[in-house]
Amino acid sequence: MTHAHPPAGVQPERINLNDKASTDTWTQKLSATREQLREAIAAVGDKAADVEMHLKGSHSTTNSDRVEALSPNKPAWIVHHPK
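Below the sequence we write its predicted structure tokens.
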């Protein structure tokens, strides 16, 4: 069960880009690249829940689709839009 707010005195999970192991964990957990994490943290701060919501955005595509679309093997204009 997920709580909207952590209990009093408990710090929410934070993403530390200076820790490679932590960054690797969060890139897998959020299906994001390191650059996407960096941009999201710059936009909303380092709270994992805020970063996750920012990455999800209001788009109908999944973050995995966006990661795939940004892969170096595909031109930037090719984007998969699931139906």
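Helices lie at 20-29, 34-44, 48-56, 63-69.
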